[in-house]
Design goal:
Elements: H1 3-11, E1 25-28, E2 31-34, H2 45-49, E3 52-60, E4 63-65, H3 67-80, H4 89-103, E5 108-118, E6 130-139, H5 146-151, E7 153-162, H6 179-190, E8 195-199, E9 207-208, E10 211-217, E11 220-223, H7 232-244, E12 249-251, H8 256-260, E13 264-269, E14 273-280, E15 283-284, H9 292-303, E16 311-313
Parallel strand pairs: 7-8, 7-14, 11-12
Antiparallel strand pairs: 1-2, 1-6, 3-4, 3-5, 4-16, 5-6, 9-10, 10-11, 10-13, 13-14, 14-15
The structure holds pyridoxal-5'-phosphate.
């Protein structure tokens, strides 16, 4: 098969899964390849400069969850960092659905990435680069597996590392500047924790690697409003809590001291949903088991995946 034929085959919509893609598929420059074979150009500034934005959407039981909301967020973010994909949002949408269909994955973690691209030799002006789009789908990723969620996790609030200030790197534009988040994770390991979250340097909790933070304090469900990513799981939970009046909600600064006296703490992420925290900085949260509101929201979150408002089936 010629390159052109391969490209045509890769981009045309297919209803059959390809067993070669069962472990995951990647879309690179018009070709669908097994994810373990996917390669990016070493000079892509997404790789050497973190000059990109990306988004991650899940597929659960054969349907994308909030696909159009993810695409809208992705578009807002690429616009904010002055990127422009080589094709439109509708084509990205069709390509993602096709990629997952061809992988045959029913529960998947689907990433779309737009990089500044590869400069011409000697070129330094980012305005001249041709931006590049990449995507991949792999089996569903859990920050915390369901069996671990049943027990809850041990969260550490890092003391030696703060979140990159929003005026340096905008955390609402999903990015690969994970140096601070990974440093916080190592600090958590060093202090006997499983996950680490960072503060803003002024005593307020922000977020951690791949998740937002919620706390139930004096019966009020609180989560930071600024200086954090507008997580889709966070957004879904806020909407569910508002729709159902499950608890009073407060979006705003969440001081570490308030978190420390919370009766329930949980984390939210596409990669795992609602993840209970039962130990915070070595101290027990509540009665040491996932809290009642946490468990209720966890159940509601997964139920929302069946809601036709949110579900886009992969098979037509
Ligand atoms: C820094 C950060 N915060 C929060 C989240 C959670 O966002 P979502 O619920 O859309 O997965 C992520 C997801 O990767 C993240 O990277």
């Amino acid at each position: 098969m010629t390159g052109v034929e391969r490209r045509a085959a890769a981009t045309s919509l297919s209803t059959v899964a390809d067993p070669a893609l069962a472990g995951g598929a990647a879309w690179i420059e018009g070709e669908l390849v097994p994810v373990e074979e996917a390669r990016i150009p070493i000079l892509d500034t997404g790789f050497v400069r973190s000059d990109l934005t990306y988004d991650v959407v899940s597929v659960w039981r054969g349907s994308f969850f909030r696909l159009d909301d993810h695409l809208a967020r992705f578009q807002r973010n690429w616009t904010r960092v002055r990127l422009s994909p080589p094709f439109g949002r509708d084509e990205i949408r069709a390509l993602l659905i096709d990629m997952v269909r061809r992988s045959g994955l029913r529960d998947a973690y689907v990433a779309m990435i737009l990089t500044r691209g590869v400069p011409a030799p000697g070129e330094r002006d980012p305005r001249s680069f041709r931006n590049r789009f990449y995507a991949y789908a792999v089996p569903f990723v859990w920050i915390q597996r369901p069996d671990q969620q049943a027990a809850g996790t041990h969260l550490v609030i890092a003391r030696d590392t703060i979140r990159i200030p929003p005026t340096a790197v905008d955390p609402t534009v999903k990015n690969f500047h994970w140096g601070d988040l990974v440093r916080g994770l190592y600090e958590a390991y060093d202090r006997g924790g499983a996950l680490g979250a960072l503060t803003d340097g002024n005593g307020n909790v922000t977020e951690g690697p791949g998740f937002n933070v919620f706390a139930l304090v004096d019966g009020v469900l609180r989560t930071p409003a600024d200086g954090v990513f507008d997580g889709m799981t966070r957004r879904t939970l806020i909407e569910l809590v508002q729709e159902e009046g499950a608890a009073p909600l407060q979006l705003g600064p969440l001081p570490v001291a308030e978190l420390a006296r919370a009766s329930e703490v949980f984390l939210s992420s596409t990669a795992g949903g609602v993840m209970p925290v039962t130990t915070l900085d070595g101290a027990t949260v509540g009665d040491g088991r996932p809290g009642e509101l946490t468990r209720r929201l966890q159940a509601r979150y997964w139920l929302a995946h069946e809601d036709p408002r949110f579900a886009t089936p992969v098979t037509r």
